Task: inverse folding
């Protein structure tokens, strides 16, 4: 098995980056009154997912890596809530594809953490 040398090669990071791009598109259509409240919160949570995967990738020690991947999971849950809120506020109904991506990334992060915990 080839060793992954860059965080950009991680499938979970690639999907997280796709999530960020999708979130930026969906937040463009939110009402202007959310420009300084909800939009930055949603974008920050999405960026945090990919950024913490990238940061955790280079950290030394299993516990240190797992900590950053756990932060990514927390940001995913935060983002999931924001999508529920956006839908309930009737700003958009176009959240299902993103919610499926969030679930997939969550499963991938969980698998990554489990595999790291198995290391000697």
Result:
């Amino acid at each position: 098995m080839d060793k992954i040398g860059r965080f950009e090669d991680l499938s979970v990071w690639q999907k997280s980056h796709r999530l960020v791009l999708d979130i930026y598109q969906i937040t463009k259509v939110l009402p202007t009154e959310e420009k300084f409240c909800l939009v930055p919160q949603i974008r920050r949570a999405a960026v945090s997912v990919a950024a913490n995967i990238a940061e955790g990738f280079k950290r030394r020690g299993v516990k240190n890596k797992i900590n950053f991947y756990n932060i990514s999971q927390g940001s995913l849950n935060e983002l999931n809530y924001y999508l529920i809120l956006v839908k309930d506020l009737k700003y958009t109904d176009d959240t299902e594809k993103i919610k499926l991506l969030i679930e997939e990334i969550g499963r991938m992060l969980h698998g990554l953490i489990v595999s790291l915990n198995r290391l000697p």
Observations:
- The two ends are 18 Å apart (CA to CA).
- Residues 7-117 form a domain with the de novo design (two linked rop proteins) fold (CATH 1.20.1440.60).
- The longest helix spans residues 62-88.
